[in-house]
Every structure is written in C-alpha cells, then in structure tokens.
Amino acid sequence: MKLLLSWLNDYVKVDDIEPAALADRLLNIGFEVEQIIDIGGGIDRVVAGKILDVKPHQDADRLSVCLVDVKERILTVVTGADNINTGDIVPVALDGASLPGGKKITAGSLRGVLSEGMLCSGAELGADDSVFEGAGADGILILPAETAAGRDVREILGLNEVVFDVAVTANRPDCQSVYGLAREVGAALGRKVKPLNLKYTARAADKTVAINIEDIGLCPRYTARIIDGVKIAPSPLWLRRRLRFSGLKPINNAVDITNYVLLEVGQPLHAFDLRSVEGGITVRRAKSNEKITALDGAKYELADNMLVIADDVKPLAIAGVMGGEFSGVNPDTTCVLLEAATFARGSVRLTSRTLGLRSDSSARYEKGVDYASVDTGRERALALFYQLKAGKITDYKGGAGIDPPAQRVIETSVFDINRVLGMKIKAADAVKILRALEFGVKQNGDALKCAAPAYREDVDNFTDLAEEVIRFYGYDKMNPTLPFIAEPLASGYEPRLKKIDALKDFLVARGLSEAVSYSFINPKIHDKLLLPQADPLRGAIRVLNPLSEEFSVMRTQLSGSMLDIVRLNASRQNTPLRLFEVAKTYKSAELPPKCLPRENETLCAALAGGGADFYALKALAGGVLQFFGADCALKYGSKSWLHPGISADVIFCGAVVGSFGKIHPLAAKSFDVPSDTLIAEIDLEYLLASKKPVAVFKPLPKFPAVERDLAVTVERGVAVGELIDAVRRAGGETVEDVKLFDVYEGEQIAAGSKSVALSVKLRSADSTLDESGVSGVMNKIVGALGAEFNARLRT
Amino acid sequence: MQEKIRTLTDGCKKLIGGCETARALGELRARILGKNGELTALLKGLKDMPDDERPTAGKIVNEAREALEREFAAAAAALESAELKAKLDAEKIDITIDSGGGVGSLHPLTLMRRRICDFFTAQGFTVCESPEIETDYYNFEALNVPADHPAREVQDTFFITDKILLRSQTSTGQIRAMEKMRPPLKIISPGPVYRSDDPDATHTPMFHQLEGLVIDKGIAMSDLKGTLDLFAKEFFGENSRTRFRPSYFPFTEPSVEVDASSGSGWIEILGAGMVNRNVLRMSGIDPDVYSGFAFGMGLNRITNIIHAVRDARIPFENDARFLRQFG
C-alpha cells in the first residue's frame, strides 16, 4: 500500500527521520518498503519568479522576452506562452534545472536572445488540479500573487512529498492503512501515536432507515448513518493531494471522504443518496438473474451466492464490491446514507472474481476487516463531514449484526516466549514491547495475561506473542544455536533418489548433458508425436487454469519436450547433441482424476548428429538397463514417433517399459528436428522397483577356451540375435560366448541373402576340450542353424 | 696360445662394434662362441696340450670367453634399446587430434540440489520425495491455509480439479513427512513446484524448491538461525551472515524472510519459521511436547544467484551451450 509520510506524520512524528532510515525500521518489524517515491524528486532548480516585463521578441512573432525576478537576480527568459502578464508569479526552471521525466533545462539562445531559463506549465511539473488549483490549465502556471519569488516550486505545489510503497503481509489487514502503520511505527520508534479525530456534533434525525441482515454469515455487521444538508463540492486541496498521491482519483467531498477513510483507517465505506433508497435496507443474497448497473457503468448479472445491499424494491450495491450507478452520490445529492459494514472476505472475493469486478473496497474486504474498525471508520468519516462542513450529521444510528467478539486473552509466560525463540529476553523488555503494541498485559512474575487489541485478529497463542516481542526486540540480538537431537537419526538419501542420481552420473559419463523442462506441455505435442487418437498417452491431465495452451496438460511422456529441445539446439547449430532428462510423467486412469495420479520417474535421452546411429543408442539404452540389473527383451518398436524398422520396445517382466530408436521421418518433420535424431524413453519405475539379486560367486574356469569362427549365409530377413540364440541352444553349456563379427551382403552372396560371421567361444567346466569335442559341438550348431534358418555354411 | 687368443679376442671385439643388428650380433656370437666357434675350437684343442700347460691355457681361454660374453651381452642390450627407441619413434602420433567423446554435464539445478542436499545430509537430514500433484489438503488445509484465507490468492495455484492441484510449495513435503515419521525428524524435500506466473526474467511457472523441517522436543528459533548461518557460510562464503526479517506464512509462527550477506549486500534466500502449532496438531504431533522449524528455499533462485544467471527462463531453455557450462 501507498503510505504518504506527511500523512503518517499526522499521527506519529517521523519528519525528523530520513526516509531511507524509516524504511529500514519498517523492514526490521516486518514491513518491506518496496519503493520510496519522491513525488517532486524529478524536479530540481525550479522556483517562483515574478514577471517584471514582457516584450515581443524582435525576430519571432510567437515568442516573448520576459524579465523575471527570481529573488537572487533578474533573468531574461524567452517564452512561447501567451497567458502571462507583467506582475504574474510563475514557475521558472533555472539554468541546469530538471523536470519530471528527466528533462534538463539549460540557458541558450532563442532566435538571437539568450534565454536564461524556462517558464513552466503545471503539466511540465507533473501537477494537475488535484495537486494545485489551476495547475491543469493550458499555458504557464500562474501562481497566487502572494507567492514569494525564489521559493522552491515543489513546496508551493505540495510536491515535496515522499510516499512509501509498503508490502503488508496477509496476516496484518489492520496495517493496510495509514493509522495501522502509524501504530507499528510508533511502537518501533518508542513514540506516542496521536488518536484519530472522531469529533463531531449530531442533530436530531428526521429520517430513519430500517436495517435488516438476512445472511449474518456473509455480513456479520452492518451500520448506517444519515448526513443531511449535504453540499456536494470538490474536497479541499490537502485531501485531494493525499488521495491523488495514494493512487486514488478525487471525485467530490462525499466520495473523497469515504476513500480517505479507507486509506487512513482501512475501513471501506459507501455513500448512498438517500433519495434512491425505497423503504429499508436489507443485506441479502442476490436473486438469481438479478441485475445491477454498477458505478463503473457496466451491467452485472448476479447469482444467489452473491451478497447485495438492497432496499425494498431493488439492489442498491454489490456488497463490499461496488455501489449501483443510480444509488450513488450525485452533484445534487443533499442527503447521504453512509454505510460501514463487514462482509465475509471469502464471499467478497468470490463475487469479485466471478463478476471480474475489483475495487479498492473489495481488495480491502478480501484481506479481512475487523469488527471494531466498522465503528472507527464510520466515526472518522462523520468527523470529516463535520470538519469539511460537507453536511449535517444526524443522530440516526442504524445497525444490525452480531455482538462484539469477546476480547482474546492469552495466558502465557516469558519462559514460553523465550522457549520459542531460544533467547533470554527479560520480562520487563517483553512486557514493554507488548504494551507499546496496545496489548493489555497483566504480569505476575514470569506469568503473563495478554489481552489483544480488537484489530489484532491474527493473534491466537503465545507463539504470536513471541513474534511480536522479537519483531521489536530485534532478530539481530538472537544468538545462533544448532538443533541438538540426542536420538540417532537415519540420514541420507532415499534409495530411489540415490539410484536416480547415480543414473544421471552414468549418463554424464557417457557424454550426455542433462536438460530440465516444464512438466506441462502444449497438447499439440501429441499430434506432433503422431499419436493415434486412442493412444493412452493422449490421456493427459489438464490444468483447469493454465497460463496458456502452451502449458496446459501434464506430460505423459518426455519425448515431446526433448524433441522441442533438439529443435531449439539444432536451429542454433548446437550439434552434435547428446542430451537426457529425468523427470516425472503423470498418468491417471480417469480424467479428470478423482485421486492423485501416478507420477512415474522417466528417462528420456536424445542423440542427434555426430554419426550416432541406432546401435549407438542401443548401447546407451542397454547400458541403462544393465545399470539397473534389469533383464529385458527387445522387440521391434511400436511408438508412433519412432521409425518402425529402426526402433525397439524394451520388454521387462512382460510389460513395455520403454522404447528407443530413430525418429519417424514424419515426426522429424512435425518437430522440425534433424532426420538422424535418435530418441529413447524409459519408464524408470519398473526398473527402480526391481532389485538386483545378491551375486553368488561362480568359480573361475580352470580349463582353456577354444574359439571357432562360423560364417553362414541366411535369408536377409533373419535376425542375428535369433541366430545367436540358436547357437546357444544347440551348443548348450559348452558355448560360453557368441559374438557377431561381420555381416555381409553383396556380389559374392546370392541376392536376398546375407552372410553372418560369428565367433563362438567354447569351454568345458571339467576338461580341456579336444578337437573331437569341439567339432562335435560345432557340427550340432551348424546342423541346428541349417534346420532352423536354412543356413548354409560358407567356406 | 696366449697370442692367438688375444688376436681372436681383439678381432672379435672390433667385429662386435661393427654389428648394427641383433641378428648380425647373433651370427657373430655363433661364429666365435658357438658349438663350432673359433674360441670353442681353442677350448676343444686344450685336451691335446701337455698336462703342465693345460691349466694355465684353460684359464686364459675361459677368461677370454667370459670377457667376450660380457661384450656380446652389452652390445645386445644396446642394440635392443636402440631398436625399441626406433620403433617407438616410428609409432609416434599427433596427440593434438580430438576424436569427440568426453563427458556430458549435469544441469546446474541438479548440481545445486546435490550440493545443498549433501550439505544437509551431512548434518543428519534425510532427503525425502513427495508428490507434485497434490490434494488441496496437503497444499493448503494441513498448512493452516483454510478455504477463505487470503494466502490462497497470493499463491496463484494451478488447479487440476477443485480438490487436486499442482503443489505451489514443497511445504507439502513437511506434512507428508510428519504423517510418515514420528519425531524427532530432520528432513529436506526438494522438487518442482508450480505457480501461475507468466515467464519473465524473474519468474517461471515451474521452478524447484527445497523444504527443510526439524522437529523434536525443545527446538527453538535460534536453532533455525544457527542452521541457516551454516548454510549461508557454505554457499555464500565464509564471511556470510544471515539476516532475519519478520514476515508471514500461514504454516509458521513466528515467520521470517532470510537474507544472506554476500559481498555488497543482502540477498533474499528463503522463507522460514517455527512450525505453526496448528500444523503440528493437524499432523498428529502434540505442539505442547514438540516444536520445530521449517524453511523453504527457491533452488532456481539460489542456482541463478550463485552462477550469475540473470534470466530465470534460461535454465529451462536447455541450450546445449548453456548446459555444458556446468560440471
């Protein structure tokens, strides 16, 4: 909120403290000053000057040459203005002056005449009629005739004002006001806070209005007063300035008073023209389809969960949000019904949100208005009506609602307060602080009985009192200690986290860099991944209120985000690329979900450029599976974004847990990534859950191995893996290892066939293999390959 | 005899010097010392000598033989090392050529998360995970933010349904931990959180936080101060201090914003406080017996401060040139 220091100074003396120092004090007690605004800060070296003479410029029709007395000396100033006369007092920007917006003024020649400064308009000084009478007019600002020449224009225009933009935390709605902050500042500085002026005299009322609250839950309290003989007029300058520098637009005295009180004591008020009230006032829920045209001129359709202030016939205002256009104060209003009430903050917020209508009043009600502030705010407004002679206050006192809440008394001890803080603050110091904050404190040795002021609805127990004490005692006096826990605690990482971290290290060691991307994606990614309409991956959980479509669904796979990252890097020529991401994918059986969805830790890796091929990716994916000790099978891939012939699905315990391969040419196109992009995605949940069995040592072989090479021709479609499996089956235990060392297709082989050369390592556990033993096994192998694959031995 | 041997020995030594290969040396050795070698022949001739001359002659021949053997061995060793050197010289390659490969890099966020987790685990904390998609209860209710509380507005939460949401803070992890474990407990819980902020230089709609929670009998706010002072020294330099500023969070009381001093000024690093009694009570922990502190820091924020990343969006862009700048 905006806090004018001159206004604050009305209640607690601060004009002897540098604004920066005051901001520091506020920070120490929990109110951060986000900005210090020096209203006239942009203005420098602009003073009042008396025009002694005005002559036309000899060489320019539209210019005049003035002699201006600025007290220290008499200047020659050239001006284009035509509203000035000898004897006028005007603002003069001297040589070297600054104006708002960073404009600099220097002496210079204008058509051959040296101008030693510039005469200013109100607008050039950032002033209008709400700041200074006549400042909004065109032409040079004519200052009052009694203004002394040489006086700083910031003082004359009331621009020598410093405004704090204070961040007030949500627990302190009472400090959303000048007076609330004055109380805090007073306690911080140890200075007395002056009471609000609530004085006025009331005359006998000749009108009354019955008040009735239908929904006490949404409106705990409603009070009203009648001010008669109202003369609608502009507010005095000092009031208009305060509103304006606080960010509000001055309107007329009656409305300005309600706004002034909102800023000063934090109580929203509303002024009705009593003529528009037919019968009594009822605070009730709106009828469905009930409509009202608000002060902003727009028509709103209300719902039955919204609260309205109504008379016997029609709604007059949307409670706590905005008044109706035809029930408000007009220039000819003579009798005002002043409303001061509290409304449930949740209700005001809901109404304001639903209607898309916010006001200073609704913003204030949403933060919470306490019971007592209704009286303070209303009485302060009446005192202002009285002080400004804006109307005659009558003794009508309308009101309805709950009884005042009981005073909250917290029984605690200095020991308990110190126990929270880990300090040894003396009882006298703690009591002094609490009393300065207007707590009623009864001390009995160490024991304290603290009655909270009515406006401190945030205070509930002794920890709140501990906070009050330390805020003013100072955290800088707290000595650091370390938590002492005697009981031994298991510390470290959950095993899954450890495993995931180790996996990341494994991938980094293989030359991959880690990416981190957003969990929500654009659902268009599903189309770019070529997912069939019925694909479960399209069943992504939607965010109800996304920032935009781009961040609207929780991803069910990581490949889409990864391909976007590949595109970005490829477009910036950052290839070759080796990237991975480990993140959650979110899956729900029902949409929208009725219970918390599964969050599956998932790995995605991409290789692009640098000559990496399917087998490079297979080695990487295989390494990951081996890392987890998972025994997986592969089959040709089924993922829509992968090349069907150059990709594989990973099968673990019968389930597809991942896929890897070359990108499908159509997906390469839709994502605009290089056509040699390779991408792998593996759901880690299955693998994280699998436990590596404890290794049992197998004695190392005692007898030498024999290696035999074997080259066969088979049909082109026969998979090498299947040949190797057949070799193992046929050779039995004697086959220790089978390695592929060549695949050949070409001139020396029949068309449609290929030659596969394998190296077979044979070993017996209990003897040295002799030639007959070796050839016996090899014959069996050749026989089996012949029978199963029609393989012929190459010689 | 003596004369004969000297001539033979001298001649042989000269020939050894002239051998340029191991092979030539071998042939020479065979010719002199071999079965039918010249010196061997002299040795064989000893048997025809008179008995009184034989011992002296034998001694002379044997000495000559031993001397020649030494010469041959030395020459062989010299030749061998010269040949090895020549071979190694010939095999020399250009070591300035690169063939790609090399290790990759962890994302700076992961590096920072690890550093911070390692720091806290060394002090006896356990790292726990908790869900990102949460119920209203864990994100608000159990953290003392009832339905009409203004703090709900401030957070600007992404909702999935009216009861399920994307957690806006890792404080949800506090509640999960308190439900799972009994005090004393010391946990940290890192992970992504989500807030409805349009991406700009200081905001991203997803970022990572790290929550800390300590609960036991007699935990005081000064313990929070001590713990965070150590943290500041570790991450912002040995001379770094912390500054507590009073603040407000519904789930702590008292609450503070914590700044760390770093060179020129104060940097806001986290929010913290003593766990609110209502929060303890709701999680089944008796606030009259136990107390605790909690803190929550923005991992992205701290990462960006320490690595001088000036735009919050850059780490999520994943430009490989950015990623490779970190270990």
The number of helical segments of chain B is 13
Order of secondary-structure elements of chain B: HHHHHEEHHEHEEHEEEHEHHH
Largest interface: A-B, 92 and 87 residues
- Into which percent range does the helicity of residues of chain A fall? 25-40%
CATH H level of the largest domain in chain A: which superfamily? Bira Bifunctional Protein, Domain 2
CATH H level, superfamily name of the largest domain in chain B: Bira Bifunctional Protein, Domain 2
Terminal CA distance of chain A reads: 92 Å
Q: Give the mean pLDDT of chain A.
A: 94
CATH topology grouping of the largest domain in chain B: BirA Bifunctional Protein, domain 2
Number of domains of chain B: 2
Main sheet: strand order of chain A: 28-31-32-36-35-34-33
> Mind telling me the C-alpha Rg of chain A?
42 Å
Biggest sheet strand line-up of chain B? 1-4-5-9-8-7-6
Summing up helix and strand content along with how strands pair, one would put the structural category of chain A as alpha+beta
Q: Write down the domain tally of chain A.
A: 6
Give the CATH topology of the largest domain in chain A: BirA Bifunctional Protein, domain 2
What CATH first level of the largest domain in chain B would be assigned? Answer: Alpha Beta
Structure keywords:
heterodimer; A: 795 residues; alpha+beta; Phenylalanyl-tRNA Synthetase, Chain B, domain 1; OB fold (Dihydrolipoamide Acetyltransferase, E2P); seven-stranded mixed beta sheet; six-stranded antiparallel beta sheet; elongated; B: alpha+beta; BirA Bifunctional Protein, domain 2; 20% strand
